[in-house]
Amino acid sequence: xxxxxxxxxxxxxxxxxxxxxxxxxxxxxxxxxxxxxxxxxxxxxxxxxxxxxxxxxxxxxxxxxxxxxxxxxxxxxxxxxxxxxxxxxxxxxxxxxxxxxxxxxxxxxxxxxxxxxxxxxxxxxxxxxxxxxxxxxxxxxxxxxxxxxxxxxxxxxxxxxxxxxxxxxxxxxxxxxxxxxxxxxxxxxxxxxxxxxxxxxxxxxxxxxxxxxxxxxxxxxxxxxxxxxxxxxxxxxxxxxxxxxxxxxxxxxxxxxxxxxxxxxxxxxxxxxxxxxxxxxxxxxxxxxxxxxxxxxxxxxxxxxxxxxxxxxxxxxxxxxxxxxxxxxxxxxxxxxxxxxxxxxxxxxxxxxxxxxxxxxxxxxxxxxxxxxxxxxxxxxxxxxxxxxx
Length: 390
Known about the structure:
The chain has helices at 2-30, 33-38, 43-62, 73-94, 100-108, 117-140, 151-155, 158-180, 182-196, 200-208, 214-227, 233-271, 273-280, 282-295, 299-305, 311-318, 325-349, 354-389. The protein is mostly helical and 390 residues long.
């Protein structure tokens, strides 16, 4: 029970410390009227709290002591004093002590439809002193060595540590931009809606709205869906064929998909198998291990030929196998080329029936590949049957 209470206290201390840092940064940014009109600085608090939770996870479950700022009296004192000084100065001199803090926190924690500003102030009066008290107590109480093992973090290589922090940094940056920039949020939501509905012409018009940057936006979305978003890439490929012609569209789709695949491959190499299992699930990775053991260096090429096999799964899973980068690169490039060329051509010439054509093509390719895989077994079975009759 003591360990549970101590762990809870450490969590509150980490979240509150990073909350103060994010709050101070948000207040500073709000003072810039030009930036504040175009960027919701309040969401720095959101990302900062998530960072505190992330660091707490690494400290508690992997023994990453250096990230536990809330365990250092000097670091805690410096952060708390400087953050509170910034918050107090700008709130009192540039804003309102009764309005600005409550407004920032309410928006950053998505509580605008739940609490009024006066109610948020009342919550402040209760939560703030309690959080400060918990921080002081956690500094006075030494952490139980049994709560965290130092082996988890220390077993990781420098590149794995960098990879984990870099991946989190990318996710945090994306969330910050998505939450804090309304136009980007609306634009991304619109693109995802077109992709989910397989609306090729709608997605084509969406890309056209970016003018000369249409190809850049298309490429970034292809990389984005390759890395983290379970969205249908074939819609992007069809739209590229419709917008840039089947040759130009195929080149754009193929190159951006390759960029996404390479990124996934190296992320898996850096992060290692335990993290990849969290990304693609342990069950999916086990399936890939069996598939790779059976078909070896040809596994990636075969998997790329079948559109129903997850593009992300193959890229991440290949990164934790013995396959070399160039084997992965050429297998991916050649394996996805037929589908890319066909989708681009269909996108240019047959947009009204893209869904039907996509599913027909998927079924034909899947049957062809399955036939290739099962052919040796069928031949053995046929020979055995003939021998039994003889």
